[in-house]
């Protein structure tokens, strides 16, 4: 057991939940402030336009809020399922010593992301059905890889001497995983989850093609009906949601990261 490894174990074990650094800085709130200004500018611009009957039906509060709620619901459900499925899968994969098995598993996950999300959704709709459930499954397949690969990489990068030192101190394999490996791998795992969530926000726009709702309704309606206020509103709202969720994920990442890592 090396002195450095023992110190690393003690540091991780003692500092895990106390990751409150200087948190509420002015710089942290620049992103939400910019988003508020963008949304206010969008609202003023749309209010200044003379909308025809089609635009009025699409750009009313009830329709827009319903589409935002559907989009966020699809994104949150996708992210939760990916976290629940991909992190345990990555942990299980890290316990397998065979590099060939790990490569095959990562290759299968890579197929989902390498295929365009519209292809995954349409293929599942043909083989299964249209609607929310199909869109959810397709998005989970599409966003699975970043969390799986980051969990595996995060666990693999833990120094072997730290594991050996923890075992030498009397920890069981489960304790080593919970108290040493996962805290050290947390920043990498959270980075993968953050990437996956942002992917889900953008990919959820194509759910409209199989009647799963979301802000894609505004974008597709704006394109097909040549109503540019509708198209621009949908695109700006999707971009703002993606930036906002990325900001929230960054805040959560800072809060959950063990101090000193």
Automatic annotation (TrEMBL):
Q: Mainly localized where?
A: membrane
Xref: Pfam families: BPD_transp_1
| InterPro entries on file | ABC_transp_perm/SBD, MetI-like, MetI-like_sf
One CC-aspect GO term: plasma membrane
Q: Where in the cell is it found?
A: Cell membrane; Membrane
Q: Report if keyword Membrane is assigned.
A: yes
The membrane-topology field of this record reads: Multi-pass membrane protein
CDD domains xref list:
TM_PBP2 (cd06261)
Q: Where are the transmembrane segments?
A: 29-51, 71-93, 105-128, 134-155, 188-210, 230-249
Q: Which GO terms describe its biological process?
A: glycine betaine transport; transmembrane transport
Keyword annotations for this protein, in alphabetical order, are:
Membrane, Transmembrane, Transmembrane helix, Transport
Protein's UniProt keywords contain Oxidoreductase = no
Family of the protein in this entry: Belongs to the binding-protein-dependent transport system permease family.
Spell out the protein name for this chain: ABC transporter permease
